[in-house]
Amino acid sequence: IAGITQAPTSQILAAGRRMTLRCTQDMRHNAMYWYRQDLGLGLRLIHYSNTAGTTGKGEVPDGYSVSRANTDDFPLTLASAVPSQTSVYFCASSVSEGSDIQYFGAGTRLSVL
Amino acid sequence: GQNIDQPTEMTATEGAIVQINCTYQTSGFNGLFWYQQHAGEAPTFLSYNVLDGLEEKGRFSSFLSRSKGYSYLLLKELQMKDSASYLCAVRDSNYQLIWGAGTKLIIKP
Prior knowledge:
The complex is a heterodimer. By secondary structure, chain A is mainly β. In chain A, about 0% of the residues lie in helices and about 45% in strands. Chain A is built from no helices and eleven strands. In chain A, strands 2, 4, 5, 6, 9, 10 and 11 form a seven-stranded mixed sheet that branches. Chain A has a four-stranded antiparallel sheet with strand order 1-3-8-7, with no helix packed on it. In chain A, β5 and β6 (about 55) form a beta hairpin. The N and C termini of chain A lie far apart (about 35 Å). Chain B contains no helices and eleven strands. The mean pLDDT of chain B is about 95. At the A-B interface, β5 and β10 of A face β5 and β10 of B.
């Protein structure tokens, strides 16, 4: 089934460790996004990419980095994890940055201890 | 600042009608979206409004008033499977989505 795949599904991480969350889509969408979702808050955009080779900062980019080497993959890296990065992370994609619909992966539940 | 407001939680009865409101203040407006999110799952697209008025799609309808910064999602003939969170999001002048915290809808038999 076409869509977005995120890995891992969940992870417990020691503070200070490096972690990469993986995201792959097979819909040939140009735009991809990383959000975090915390209880009582709306989804907050971390980073985005409008097309392969370009990335941009969202609302809460500090402590996170991304790369977009090709159309399909958009990994999110936490260089040195901190407890405040405990959250559910969603990757999403859309045909283009101005498209109506964003399609979401199943999410990665990350706990930083 | 940018702000999306929607009720935290609502309760309704199976078979009834419920209206979930959303008010917004954003830097620019390029459309309003409603997404459904079941517990532990990904958000999925429900509806999109860019012009004033009502958009109907089966049991779900969404209304927009740009002058009032207001939208609602209307769910008819409620089913138990409609128990979920409903997320309101506005696309701003930079074409980024600004999300509300979501409304948790509880359906009782």
